Amino acid sequence: MSDELIPNYVRVPPEAYNYEPAPYIIFHGKGKKAQRFIFRDQKLTELESEKLSRLEAELKQFNINPYALHPNWTRNDVLRFCYGTDWKTRVAREGLARYIAWTRDLMPNGYLSLYPKVEKLLKSGCVYIHGRDVHFRPIMMINFNRFDFKKYTIQEYIQMVAFFLNYLIENMLLPGKIENWVIVSDFEKQGFGDLSMTSIKQVVSVLTDNFRCRLGVNYVVNPSKIVYFTWTCVKPFLDEVLIEKVKILNKSTPDELLTHCNAYQVEERYGGKAPNVTEFWPPIMPNAPYTLDGTPFLEVTEKKDKSFESQMIQPSDCENKYKRRSISINEKIHPDEYNNTNQSQEKKQKKKSKKKKQNTYEDEVYEEKYTTKEKKLEDEEYKIDDDEEIEREKEKQREKQERKKKREMRRELKKKEKEKEKEKDNINDATESRESDHAKDSEIKGDENLDSSNRFMLIPQEVIVENEKQDVGCGICSGFPTINIAGNKCSIF
């Protein structure tokens, strides 16, 4: 590729090769909540090495080889997927497999093959690079107002992001020293514009799934009221790691950026002293120093030990030392006495040196004993913690069993109560039926005791009763006496 695409000023500056990152830039935190920003050529903790060995075992089992895609990778580069998946080995293995498939499908001939498709989007200024901070990390600018999803599809933007970040990793980072970038996201008080939630998820998934542990800090400026309000509501429920990396500010200038970046490396619109940019590609690197005060970096000898402890700043030996005069007045007047005093001083110094050696030896022995005691105590604490966890699990199981027993007892009591209610209802129904039968029998007996003459006492005078048998009616009750009502005859039932 020509120098127009990758000019020399874009590459890592020569001062960065003499730079040694500070301890908090390499690694900080404890346990699973720790954060690692630099992976290459670093000594790993016990948790990191354990999780990495588990992941490697699963990769061998499923025939996944990440080094075929990236021959320059080391074991520590694979560790990024352990951090990005919250230390879950199976999820890390699946994420690495998806990453390999994604890169092969999107960039089979390398990331530079995407440049002809992405050139217009790079020049639009939606994403561009401007300067570096004190730690030589590139500063990425994202302007959401310049995303136009009416002209370009989401797939084209995904291609642009893939090319942009791979270009940045290959040409602007230095493994073991510079492995992250800083982002300034500008909403210009307009929110996401035409960007829908589905497109946001797709773009964010590309960043989180395929470029893990690369973000140093993201300063979000000029947010809309909705974005800032939602952030203030959701912030108390978010993880501390996310809150430390993403900082949404209700301002137009990220003041914190200037605490770790020279003002001439930042544009004026964001509080710096560099002129605002109108052409966005290739990346802009101002001709300015990288330190806050503008002084060049001192040359530092490269250290073989890249551990966290080795990065601690040691006290310098360049302090001012007082020099004695060449010949004092007492030496001239009493030279013999002066020589005797010098000899006595030498003897005292020898005695002091012997005492120091003895003290150092005793301290070393004490430290060894103390460290062994500490290890024993730690082992005992771990055992106690394991026993407590086992007891807690047993207690939980007991509580579950007791709950089940109580539920069964309640169900049995309910069943018994229902059965008793049914028995009571049956008894009440039987008593009611008996009482009704007795009432009917009494009514029938009372009717039988009545005289035949009394039965027709209520018949009006117009009705004539005949005792003769008639053939009128339905025939069922023709044997009963009939009555004459307006010339019609019918037997009485």
Would you identify the CATH architecture of the domain at 109-305?
3-Layer(aba) Sandwich
Q: So how many helices?
A: 13
Strand content: 5-15%
**CATH class descriptor of the domain at 109-305:** Alpha Beta
> Termini distance?
119 Å
Which class do the helix and strand fractions yield?
A: alpha/beta
Biggest pleated-sheet summary: 5 strands, mixed
Task: Provide the CATH superfamily of the domain at 109-305.
Answer: CRAL-TRIO lipid binding domain
Protein name: CRAL-TRIO domain-containing protein
Domain CRAL-TRIO: 117-278
Biased composition (Basic and acidic residues): 391-402, 409-448
Organism: Stentor coeruleus
Characterization of this structure:
The protein contains 13 helices and ten strands. With 493 residues, the protein is α/β, with parallel strands linked by helices. Strands 3-4-5-6-7 form a five-stranded mixed β-sheet. A three-stranded antiparallel β-sheet has the order 8-9-10, with no helix packed on it. Strands 1-2 form a two-stranded antiparallel ribbon. Strand 9 and strand 10 (488-491) form a beta hairpin. The longest helix is centred in the last third of the chain and has 115 residues, at 335-449. It is extended and about 135 Å long.
